[in-house]
Specification:
single chain; mainly alpha; 3 helices; 88% helix; 0% strand; elongated
Length: 111
Amino acid sequence: MDRTWFTGMLPLVAILLAICIPVVIERYWFKKRGGLFQLLFWTFVAQCSAIALGLLIVNLFGADSMPGRIGQALGGIGFIAIGIVPFVLLPAAIVAALAVLGWGWLRHKRA
């Protein structure tokens, strides 16, 4: 393996560590076993793993071999998933926030 693979993975590792902070807060401060941040964290771990595995396969076998092409496809799936997931989760988060706010408003009106 060459050094470019390692330096290409550093941004993914840094982002993974940055996403880990709210997970740790949710897990140990709020004492939740499973929450939204943990779901997002493990989704991102799966996406980063697909990209890292794809890069590793391409670096080991070369881009022109059959395993290299499979590695390129796997890495591409990871990149596409990272781009699509926010477009799905952002509207879902907005709807959930509006539902929570509406529920609080209804409870306040009844009291």
